[in-house]
Each structure stands twice: as structure tokens, then as C-alpha cells.
Amino acid sequence: MSLDTATVRRIAALARIRLEAAEVERMQTELNDILGWIEQLQAVDTAGVEPMAGAGAVALRMREDVVTDGGVAPRVLANAPDREGEYFGVPKVVE
């Protein structure tokens, strides 16, 4: 599979990434290389290979769902660069 420049521009628009003309060509090359690697991986014969994990083979331990109040604000804020009471201090964004 090979991507053309129109497809690369569409992907960039969907990802909200602005690309200049020179960047489109570079991104087209990079995306085509990535798709080439994926095609190589799909060509590998994995018949008879047992999965290492996942697909229901591993059961997660369940814990009791208990509501707590937390009460760990001092520990959470111990490394905060700026704090205001029991909250993180952040710069004002909207004026």
C-alpha cells in the first residue's frame, strides 16, 4: 500500500497538523515506510504460535470497589512547584 500526497494531506487535516509542501513529501515517505513495515509483519507466519498474554488467557485479579475520601492531598501536593491551599497553583490562562 502506498499513500499519495492527497491522502497524506487528508491525514494531516484529520490530525489537525499543518504541513508545508516540503513536509508533505517527507511525511509521505515516512508513512509509506511505516506501512511497509506493517506489511512485513503481516507476512510473518504465526500459525501454531501461542500468544504470550491477552485474548482471555490472563485473568485480572478483582478488588473490592470501595469508596474512600482520599485524604492524601498533602502527599500529592508535596512536590508541587506552586500551591494555593490544597490545590495546585497554575498560571492564569484566560484574561
Main attributes of the structure:
single chain; 95 residues; mainly alpha; Histone, subunit A; 2 strands; 38% helix; flat
Please provide a brief summary of the model.
The chain is mostly helical and 95 residues long. It is built from 3 helices and 2 strands, in the order αααββ.
Helix and strand topology:
Elements: H1 5-14, H2 21-42, H3 73-76, E1 83-84, E2 87-88
Antiparallel strand pairs: 1-2
Descriptive report:
This protein has a domain at 5-42: Histone, subunit A, CATH 1.10.20. The chain has helices spanning 5-14, 21-42, 73-76, and strands at 83-84, 87-88. The two termini are 49 Å apart. The chain is flat. The chain is mainly alpha-helical and 95 residues long. The model has no long low-confidence stretch (mean pLDDT 87). Strands 1-2 form a two-stranded antiparallel sheet. It contains three helices and two strands. Strand 1 and strand 2 form a beta hairpin.
